[in-house]
Amino acid sequence: MLKTIGHEKNLDNLFNRYISNNLANSILIYGPKGIGKKLLIYDLIYKIISNNFNDNNLDHHLNLFNNNNHPNIKLVKKEIDTKTKKIKSNITIDQIRNLKIFVNETQNIRNFNKFIIIDSADDLNQSSSNSLLKTLEEPKLNTFIFLISHQISSLLPTLRSRCQKIKLNTLPYELFYKILKSEIIEIKDEEIKFFFETTLGSPGDAISLYDNNILETLDLTLNVISNNNVNSNNTNLIETLSKYDNDTFKNYLSILKSTLILIFKIKKNGIDFHINNSNKFEKILELSKNINEKKVFNRLEFLSKNEKDLFKLNLDKKMFLLNFITY
């Protein structure tokens, strides 16, 4: 079942190019995180499989694809470190070397091309980027490589230049609403409006935030953020957040930054947002009365300066949060 919403024209265009043997071998799909870039690629491959295997083998190939076991399709993403049991900070050069073997070996299924999805190319380091570049410079006719990027400026210019680039834009509120209602039946309209503002219109981020109950933690954050002294509420918040894994903590920081930006805008020029009738927005308005612009700006500055090092250097979350609250 196709899941792409809002990018149907891109999907049809890519599929028609593939059918007419006019699809580029290396395609970079970029745009804000969580707007459906990976879904677009998956739906494209879904359509290609359905077109190629229109017989009794179709369900078999679709099941292999859905379970990431299809021999002609490879997903490359950050792996778990066997020693630390944590997700590695980058896609490694060894992964790209294995990718080259996959590209050069004989097709596992005859009369069907190979497809590679790199999610995301932002996670490539210098070594793995240069290694991938060599593969892109010598494309195989039977292989299609899709690179996903949430921040295209982070990629090597030479890497970008070897790919056809397709930009996906943020979805309007109507489509954002449709996606969240279809994925989370019990979600409230006011929560959808709040997520639309705080995720900058990213359905993927909104779904992840909802699944991790980030809103409850945000409520606690809003209650303590204006207090620079360490008290029991601050301590409880720090203890709760320090137990989050890195992905969940990143989601929390994402919505926290968006909320701080909202507060800053409210205090600066009183912007009228879509969520002005929601309980969450009322709490933001209340908080904005108790904290001055400088404190909001300082906390945004703290996150800007320290967030990357937190994950890159695997710093202590408790100390990070304590410094943030009292910054």
Task: Please provide a written account of the structure.
- The protein is α/β, with parallel strands linked by helices and 327 residues long.
- The chain is 56% helix and 8% strand.
- The protein is built from 15 helices and 5 strands.
- It has helices spanning 8-19, 37-52, 58-66, 93-104, 126-137, 157-161, 173-183, 189-198, 203-211, 214-224, 232-242, 246-269, 279-290, 293-312, 317-325, and strands at residues 26-30, 73-76, 114-119, 143-149, 164-167.
- The chain has a 5-stranded parallel beta sheet, sandwiched between helices.
- The mean pLDDT is 86.
Helix content: 55-70%
Widest sheet: strand order? 2-3-4-1-5
Average pLDDT works out at 86
User: Beta fraction of the residues?
Assistant: 5-15%
* Distance separating the two termini: 48 Å
Q: Structural class, please?
A: alpha/beta
* H/E element sequence: HEHHEHEHEHEHHHHHHHHH
Number of discrete helical segments: 15
Largest sheet: 5 strands, parallel
Structural Rg: 22 Å
> What are the low-pLDDT stretches, counting only 5+ consecutive residues below 50?
none
The total beta strand count reads 5
Dominant shape: globular
